[in-house]
Design goal:
86% helix, 77 residues, single chain, mainly alpha
Length: 77
């Protein structure tokens, strides 16, 4: 059975996953850039969505790196 870290590694290195995450982030940035001047709430909403996408990506990258961190920790001791 593949452990959690290995599954996360497979996900963050998957070409489809990375391209779709990039497309979603680009979409949010375009929505911000193309918003009306007076649409502050709209920009804030898209900014929050962008931030959530980045947090999701960072979470899975962190999980993927867990086994490397554990292995390095044992080398130091």
């Amino acid at each position: 059975m593949i452990d959690r870290s290995e599954r996360a590694k497979n996900l963050v290195s998957d070409e489809f996953w990375t391209s779709e995450m990039a497309a979603l982030q680009d979409s949010m940035l375009n929505q911000i850039a193309n918003s009306n001047e007076d649409d502050e709430r709209g920009r804030e909403r898209f900014y929050l969505k962008l931030k959530v996408l980045k947090e999701i990506q960072a979470h899975f990258e962190s999980v993927a790196a867990t086994d490397r961190i554990v292995k390095k920790r044992w080398k130091v001791l």
